[in-house]
Amino acid sequence: MDTVVQWNIRGFRSNFEELMLLLNRSQSAVVVLQECRLGETQRPSVSIPTDKESTLSPPFIWTASRSQ
Fold this sequence. Notes:
It is built from one helix and three strands; from the N terminus they run βαββ.
């Protein structure tokens, strides 16, 4: 059965190590990251390694609401 992981990350940079652990250990089909306090111009980029040793293969969906 495929699984989906959704995480309201609450600070992409401050939770980067935990995010990498999740991605490396997860067998998820999809990973959804949500950050409510970022605007469209503040989206961080997520680089997915393409080498054969990488286990980071799920598709990513990034959502962000407008900052106020």
